[in-house]
Design goal:
single chain, mainly alpha, Growth Hormone, Chain: A, 2 domains, 19 helices, transmembrane, MFS transporter, CP family, cyanate transporter
Length: 422
Amino acid sequence: MTPPPAPAATVPAPGVASAGTPTPAPRAVRGGLLVLAGMLLVALNLRAAVTSLGALLDEIRVGLGLSGAMAGLVTTLPTIAFAGLGALTPWLVRRWAAPRVLVLAMLALTVGQVLRAATGSAAIFVLTSALALAGIAVANILLPMLVKQHFPHRTGLVTGAYTMALTVGTTVAAASAVPVAHAFGSWRAGLGIWAGLAALAVLPWVPLALRARAARRASPPAVAVATPARVRPGRTRLGWAMAVYFGAQSLSGYAIMGWLAQLFRDAGYRPEAAGLLLAGVTALGVPVALMMPALAGRLATLRPLVLSLTVFSAAAYTGLALAPRGLAPLWVLLLALGQGAFPLILTTIGLRARTAEGTVALSAFAQSTGYVIAALGPLLVGILYEATGGWTAPIGFLLVALAVQTTAGMVIARPRYIEDER
């Protein structure tokens, strides 16, 4: 039955036309495109500040006189920040609109990168790096919520697009930080140049933040209604399964990024070739990042994807243990396919929540808890490598982590919603 037309005195909400009034589709489309552009620019920044630091760590350590312990703290800082500061994001979103939070997050990333590239103090370098990483930590949590909020029927496609942007930003920053530093004669240029990219990511969110603020002021006073119970993923089986899957795949990913080049060096590759093989994992991951979310969004159950990713990773680890030199390009390809677990879990966060509130709560819990787990990866691989002098024990550890990841994956594969498990 067609609803009656709205009274003449009623002002329709933004993006919603009253009966007999044309729907302002072009404005809605422009708003959606602006959100999408903003999300892609944010995604480009989500790892650039981390991988550029890793590429220039030796130069930074010498330039600032970092001790071994301080250098270790700098390399562990991303996972600490992502775990601790990401957990605050739901609290921030309950008080301010998401666009405003993202403006502040990208400003923190911009200022932090500028200051850490300019300082001559090791302590200030760590503090300003933490400021930059705080912005990344908040944005990490917000992007799945924004997908759910603005693109509920294009979850896989939009998640794939921003995950691909994230992967591109990671690869470009890792590959170009050293050449930029050499071109300008200082590691500070190779590290600080990414502040410009972060500043660019602020721009789309400023008008969106102003629009959200104006809409909130123009809205009528809220009517007292019963508020739904807050979503608490930490009290659910699904929430913990998501956190374990996110943590196990991130643990493997950080271990690969930190140690794969060394494994290939030990197998007899020159440093340049070992670095190219490591870059190949990230580069080959770009199409995987684009396709995986779209594929996940179309399947009734995620079990085939979870098991396929396990097979790819297990084959790669076995090959690296038995024949790291002979078939290295094949192992790199299989590792890239296995790392499709990252875009898969990002997509699953949106698929396993009914609401934007549920999405941001699940995203915060899964990523914050997961990054605590992930921080153990490079550390334990390094300990096992130093203790045994070889790669059999570290790869065995990664296979155990893969088994844990697969077990959690079987739990999250079945369609269900976090709001139903309160």
